[in-house]
Design goal:
The protein is of the alpha+beta class. It has three domains: 46 residues, no CATH class; 110 residues, no CATH class; 49 residues. It has a three-stranded antiparallel β-sheet with strand order 4-5-6. A two-stranded parallel ribbon has the order 1-7. The chain has a two-stranded antiparallel ribbon with strand order 2-3.
Length: 252
Amino acid sequence: MQAVEVRPLQPVDKLPLAPALGQSPVMAMIAQAVAAGQSLDVIRELKDMAKELAADEARRAFDAALAEAKGKIPVITKNKHVGFESRKAGGSSTDYWHEDLGQIVRTVDPILRDHGLAYRFVPDQSSSGIKVTCVLTGHGHAESFTLMAAADNTGNKNSIQQVGSTLTYLQRYTLKMALGLAASMDDDGRKSEAVDVITDEQRTDLLDLMEEVGFTDADDARLMKVFKVQYLANLASKDYQRAVDLVKAKQP
């Protein structure tokens, strides 16, 4: 039977010190405290201090990376148009542009990736509504941004489509919040000029007149083409009387 050499245990104060992890002075102190046989309370306090310092370093690295990334993210181009105008007198009118989620993702993802940043969406649904949290992470730090809204029941959507529409909307806005994004119209470098448009009362009167003379959808389209507008609500004030005259000209 082979003999086994038994060596006497070395005293604690003779043990070599563990190397400082990540060159952190606090981690070196913890290693020394363990080697010196310090109490658990002392070691716990040192560990808490190390966690606080690590979290602070991670936050600083995250802030620096985000600042650099934001400096490279361009203004997002609004690429989707939403428009509707009721032909009924007094009906509502909707006309606006926005940037969709895909447009934002295509713009920001490569830049965030180059700076060690990423994001994810955490959805939640309850009786109070639909909630989406955008979690932005990087360099050992994370920040979250949350919005809540009811299901989008506009249009002819089924229940699943209503939830999907709201989720997409909240994802878009929480991501914009997290990154502090701005968006603008793509006008080929031209500045938009403010134009005085007709009042709600004038629009209602014009719609009443169109209804009275039997305007069709084709007539609507031709009238909008004459004034180079997409919706009656966008008709310039200076063109109102001419529009009235054209509508009246259709009278039998």
